[in-house]
Design brief:
The protein is an all-alpha fold and 214 residues long. The chain folds into 2 domains: 49 residues, Homeodomain-like (Arc Repressor Mutant, subunit A, Orthogonal Bundle), CATH 1.10.10.60; 133 residues, Tetracycline Repressor, domain 2. It has 11 helices and no strands. Helix 5 packs antiparallel against helix 7 and helix 7 packs across helix 8. The protein is flat and about 55 Å long.
Length: 214
């Protein structure tokens, strides 16, 4: 399909993998994963939907590319860095990635990361964990525990408690104050301004576990 003369200059740019990924990320950010289709993406890019398949043979290939883009945006220290410091920075960088791509993150969290980009990321994080513990078995278990914590924290902050489904008739603060005093006392610390401190406290607990097995 030839570009229309009234299309914006950005819509007349040559199609590329990078431009398709950027457009798909914009659609997901605006409308969520359910809003992503090749038809809508083609409209956004000013091309026929079928032309996207020249770069991505299926929608799954495109979704893989979006996950790769998110994972590749996580900076990891080069070999030789202090492993605990590097792993802490990786944890904060992973959480920051989830916050940059909140609509995409549920897919990232569930993806097996079995692309070259994904397995390279896993390999580097495993190298850091292995440097802190005594054996490959301990590294595997601690890596999984580390992943549980990061994934759970990132899901909770981007798509979890504050954004999840609610009861049809939720209790109010007065009910909680009257019937759930411990919840009422804890509630202020569940709010978003407290998340950084809570996340750091959880990391401290994880690294205490690493040190006990080093």
């Amino acid at each position: 399909m030839a570009p229309r003369r009234d299309q914006a200059p950005s819509a007349r740019r040559a199609l590329s993998r990078e431009r398709i990924v950027a457009g798909a990320l914009e659609l997901v950010a605006a409308d969520g994963l359910r809003g992503l289709s090749t038809r809508r993406l083609g409209e956004r890019l000013g091309v026929e939907a079928m032309s996207i398949y020249h770069y991505f043979p299926s929608k799954q290939h495109l979704l893989d590319a979006l996950v790769d883009h998110a994972i590749a945006s996580i900076p990891l220290d080069a070999p030789g860095a202090n492993p605990e410091d590097a792993l802490r920075r990786a944890a904060h960088a992973y959480r920051a990635m989830a916050r940059r791509f909140p609509q995409l993150y549920p897919l990232v969290a569930l993806h097996r990361l079995n692309t070259p980009t994904g397995v390279a990321f896993i390999e580097r994080v495993l190298e850091l964990v292995r440097a802190l513990v005594r054996s490959d078995e301990e590294a595997a278990r601690q890596f999984r525990a580390f992943g549980y914590y990061l994934t759970g924290a990132a899901l909770d902050e981007t798509a979890g408690y504050a954004h999840g489904p609610s009861a049809a008739e939720p209790v109010d603060e007065a009910y909680i104050a009257a019937h759930c005093p411990r919840l009422a006392a804890a509630a202020p610390y569940f709010k978003a301004p407290e998340w950084d401190k809570t996340f750091a406290q959880g990391l401290d607990a994880l690294f205490d576990g690493f040190r006990s097995r080093s």
